[in-house]
Design goal:
Number of domains: 2
Order of helices and strands: EHEHEHEHHEHEEHEEEHEEHEHH
Distance between the termini: 42 Å
CATH class of the largest domain: Alpha Beta
Number of helices: 11
CATH superfamily of the largest domain: NAD(P)-binding Rossmann-like Domain
Amino acid sequence: MQTVALICGITGQDGALLARFLLEKGYRVWGTSRNADTASTANLVSIGIADRITLVSMDPEIGADVIKVIRDSQAVEIYHLAAQSSVGRSFERPVETVSGIVLGTLNVLEAVRTLGNNARVFVAGSGECFGDTGQEAADETTPFNPGSPYAVAKASAYWLTRNYRESYGLFACTGLLFNHESPLRPERFVTQKILRAAKRISDGSGERLRLGRLDIQRDWGWAPEYVEAMWRMLQHADPEDFVIATGSTHPLREFVAEAFAAFGLDWEQHVTEAPELYRPSDILLSCANPEKARRLLGWKAKFSMRDVVRLMTDSLAGEA
């Protein structure tokens, strides 16, 4: 019998990459979208797995939906990745963001508790929960200081997961994922916005890219590596939370410079920092310490920020 995994939110970047990873491991994969009939499966199609998964409808905010899908799939591993995932958009749609993340997580945990099927649950958390870390790299013991509706919701989901683990003995854990990118990112994410603009400019578009703060610093990793960390967390003997990151932080200005240089361009001639694009609040410095994941899971990021730029640039070149 094949091991069955359920990925809530399979059509997004992480869901699609995780599905491919699990299929390569020999899993049978179920995946959910709010409406399977109208969902965009572009990510699944682009990596060649759309016809290898069982795609079903499930609204994470409706408890009956969640119970039905978990029961029908008979999944022994559940990866809860569903919900709005843009920090910037969370300022524009705070109610949708908080409701989707918090209620969705609660419904998955409560469904597993109610069904008593001993499924192992991974919940996608975020390094945004830590807020501005200053020069001290955040690890699993660092207090949260969320600075956006998205981060507040992810912090709440973390505490719900921990509560269900400690109160009911669920194998439920949170991956505190720092920024991770791939060609599957939509253009509303700044890394894809930068790279696609650089390509258009190199092709002669004549445009000027407008960005928010260029002095923010982030830990950028390669998303296909991060989905392996999710899987490793559910193979671990005990349910524990882990910071997943490269451990190396870079200014956005440096990412922009690398991206434009990849197309033979001087970024300063093509980029404007636009104050009207600043967020109501923004993390200036985000640093991570993923040592626990290396020590207990045997996981360590192999690709750096510069590798991420190169890999995403190669993908754009392949689209031509």
